[in-house]
Recover the amino acids of this structure.
């Protein structure tokens, strides 16, 4: 009873929870692909290994160290992605089942979310199941491209919300 | 023969394959092999590069800093960079003349330059490979496999094992050939020194492949 009342009074609760998941996914992705990318870490070894006399460590070993250093980032990326996906699915279900099928934009957003989540989950699941290198490679491209498209939709979403607020005021 | 430091002599003796006593002396004395190892270890032809790093306020950076007049925010290090291109050239020549030691050295070196088991290579690793050795990915594949083949037929240790791995799993776009892979593993097992990891690994591989 209390929960029903709470969610009725706070219809955007899961939207904001999902936003936390989205920020988590974005920050971990930025960290893993740019600031703490394999390349950035391996390049930093050029300096640190020289100082401590480890110049003889070869590139493949340096790459391995860089991968190990980043593995926790991917765990948190996955957890944030889970939070993001399920929060928004619950949010849209709460909004009204009819809207899922009548509003094309909502349908596209959910479809993209689904594609991002499934591709990301399979990428993460290679810890537990064997995935061929080719499938992994193309899933990564698929995951990245879906994220770029989804990001564009988010930007338009934000712009439309700001404009609606201006109109209301 | 130019002056060879004690550690180079030690390296040359340690990597000797076990049962090639007749050829071992000629391999060790091979001019191309000696030149290759000298270039590879940076004993000859190494360049000293200045590298600068910002945002390192730690004591180690200050101690390693070679430029006392530099501002505190930047540390300068001198890094020794061996001439890998010349090393590869000399070791390859020696390997093609049937020197198993040269094949082993070259294969071991090249294995460490690229995660060869990966089908899709990270771009930055390919860039580093090109910059340090002058090799593109296809050139790398041809070089390491041709060296491994020569090493296998000359009863090399690490080169035979590597050749077996490549044939067993089809790495570097090679066609799989389990029977030839087993022959390569057997060669590695027979000719690797007792304490060599490749001897242990190849015996495991032979046992596993028998079960298939």
């Amino acid at each position: 009873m209390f929960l029903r009342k709470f969610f009725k009074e706070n219809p955007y609760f899961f939207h904001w929870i999902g936003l936390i998941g989205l920020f988590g996914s974005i920050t971990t992705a930025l960290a893993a692909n740019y600031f703490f990318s394999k390349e950035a870490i391996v390049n930093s070894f050029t300096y640190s290994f020289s100082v401590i006399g480890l110049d003889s460590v070869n590139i493949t070993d340096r790459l391995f160290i860089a991968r190990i250093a980043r593995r926790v980032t991917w765990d948190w990326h996955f957890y944030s992605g889970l939070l993001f996906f399920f929060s928004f699915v619950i949010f849209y279900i709460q909004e009204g089942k009819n809207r899922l099928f009548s509003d094309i934009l909502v349908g596209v957003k959910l479809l993209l979310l689904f594609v991002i989540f499934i591709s990301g989950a399979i990428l993460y699941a290679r810890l537990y199941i064997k995935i061929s290198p080719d499938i992994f490679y193309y899933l990564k491209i698929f995951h990245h491209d879906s994220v770029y498209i989804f990001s564009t939709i988010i930007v338009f979403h934000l712009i439309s919300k700001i404009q609606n607020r201006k109109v209301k005021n | 023969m130019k002056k060879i430091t004690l550690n180079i002599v030690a390296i040359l003796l340690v990597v000797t394959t076990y049962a090639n006593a007749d050829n071992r002396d000629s391999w060790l004395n091979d001019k191309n092999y000696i030149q290759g190892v000298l270039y590879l270890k940076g004993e000859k032809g190494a360049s000293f590069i200045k590298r600068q790093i910002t945002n390192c306020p730690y004591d180690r950076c200050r101690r390693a800093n070679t430029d006392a007049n530099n501002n505190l925010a930047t540390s300068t290090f001198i890094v020794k960079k061996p001439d890998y291109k010349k090393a590869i050239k000399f070791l390859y020549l020696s390997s093609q003349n049937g020197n198993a030691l040269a094949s082993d050295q070259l294969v071991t070196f090249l294995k460490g330059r690229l995660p060869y088991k990966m089908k899709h290579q990270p771009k930055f690793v390919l860039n580093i490979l090109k910059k340090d050795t002058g090799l593109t990915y296809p050139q790398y594949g041809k070089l390491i496999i041709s060296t491994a083949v020569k090493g296998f037929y000359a009863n090399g240790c690490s080169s035979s094992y590597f050749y077996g791995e490549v044939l067993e799993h089809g790495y570097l776009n090679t066609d799989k050939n389990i029977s030839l892979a087993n022959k390569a593993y057997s060669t590695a097992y027979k000719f690797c020194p007792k304490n060599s990891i490749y001897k242990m690994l190849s015996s495991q591989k032979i046992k596993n492949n028998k079960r298939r």
